[in-house]
Design goal:
By secondary structure, the protein is mainly alpha-helical. It has 5 helices and no strands. Helix 1 crosses helix 5 and helix 2 packs across helix 3. The radius of gyration is 12 Å and the shape is globular. 14% of the residues are buried.
């Protein structure tokens, strides 16, 4: 696993994404359906097996109905 995946900031990102999905009342499958992704892609992101690129970050924010800037602030403030 790459060092960046183990970083404190990456762990913060994962925690914020999981919490945001749950706050939106979505299962991994429901989130995946909104983004037209597989459930396994959502799971891989949430457990840190797959990193998120910036366009995916915006897709996630839209699917969870959260302002992407607010998500970023949550990660930065972790």
């Amino acid at each position: 696993m790459a060092k960046s995946i183990r970083s404190r900031r990456h762990r913060a990102l994962l925690a914020v994404l999981v919490a945001s999905r749950r706050d939106a009342g979505l299962t991994q499958q429901q989130a995946a359906d909104r983004m037209k992704w597989s459930q396994s892609k959502v799971a891989q992101i949430e457990i840190g097996q797959r990193q998120v690129n910036i366009s995916e970050f915006f897709e996630i924010a839209a699917a969870y109905e959260v302002d992407p800037q607010e998500l970023f602030r949550r990660v930065a403030g972790w």
